[in-house]
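Why show two proteins at once? Because comparison is the fastest way to build intuition. When a single record is shown, students tend to memorize it. When two are placed side by side, the eye starts asking what differs. So, the first record is below.
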Amino acid sequence: MRIFRTEEAGRMDEETAYCPGLMVIGDEILSGRRADAHLPHVIGRLRERGLTLAWARFVGDDAEALIGQFTQTLAEGRPVLCFGGIGSTPDDRTRQALARAAGVALDRHPDAVREIESRFGAQAWPIRVLMADWPQGSTMVPNPVNRIPGFHFRGHFALPGFPELAWPMLEWVLEHHFPPCRPPEILRCLRIEGVAESLVVLPMRRVAERFPQVRLASLPRLGSDAHILLSVRGRGVIVESAFESLCAELTGAGMAWRSCPDG
């Protein structure tokens, strides 16, 4: 079963569909006036469904910068979770930039208008209804909190910047477009002390050559508690085999190590 249930699914390989990107939009994030909370939350929710985040980007409100980013992501064809910039104030430019990058017009979506009118009545006009202007061909992402919806356009899921609004909407997106279809990743880690990182390079390379299905990583720490964390990440029983091979390589090279609960 293909995980990404959209018209674009047939044009992307399964691994791309399993690995969405994350885009957090807003000058307030880049200036430090607000701290991002979306990245750790999304990583955790994806992991629970056997998914992996491909990349994360933090972009300001500049229109040309947004258009450039969306031009790249539309060409890549990967699903993208976008947070921020879909309000009605002049600095909210996600809707317009995505339409410009795709070369389509903004259309006022009737379902979105109905949702906004149901929430605000006559006060929906003339400002709040601007949040129903989406790139032509978009579909609605419902908002169970305040009924102001987000939208889905060519694999891009545009959600609010506020976590209390965005995260319930994210649950709907995951349920309808990213059903769990494969087991979660397995992570095995070990710790080495008193060894230069250069000494673990060749053992890691040999394991990587024997087990191309897994990903190996080295995370050194300096200072009074200097050590190296080595990890093996992947899916299925191959992870345990690769981890045992790494342990054997290190032991054979005369390095003492001990297992760690996580990375």
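Second record. Ask yourself what differs from the first in the token line.
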Amino acid sequence: MPAPANTLSPAVEAAPNQPRSKTDLFMSFTWLALQGFGGVLAVVQRELVEKKRWMTREQFVEDWAVAQIMPGPNVVNLSMMIGGRYFGLSGALAALTGMLAAPLVVVLLLAALYGSVADSATAQGALRGMGAVAAGLITATGIKLIAALGKNAMGLGVCIGLAVLTFGAIALLRWPLAWVLLGLGGAACLRAYRVLGRAGNGSEA
């Protein structure tokens, strides 16, 4: 099977492995989805980057950024991007089915169970505890991925500065996400475009 075209920035290396088949995609994303209670970002990064090695950290950061600005759940978008990259439309559908089929059954069963204990103080306390754990998982994964920004075309300092501005705009100033994406996201895209353009002109010279 031919390797997919590299559509990432020049500084990003190719991943060492790739899915063997559409069945491999389906089973892998099914297993991933069943682990993703609360902290799905941490699970996705561990499974795709560290265990299966379908992506490098740099590829994950770039693809996750695209998945976040697209409509719909981030991890579902990412699964379809990976499936489509290797097997086209059928691969995207295989990954999507893996992400949704088994979790749908589990969620329906849990919803029925939760309906009978929703007013219980024990159940409400357990949910608050799971929320704290999920926040910790996401924070830990974000810190782990900071090193991948060192190969970003804009440089580590600019990337961290944009991350701090984004956090301040959303968490502190409570700006709408759409405006933050259009403003800071647009400025970051323009900056990266100019840096990559200068690098391309320099290499041609």
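One difference worth noting in the second protein: The radius of gyration is 19 Å.
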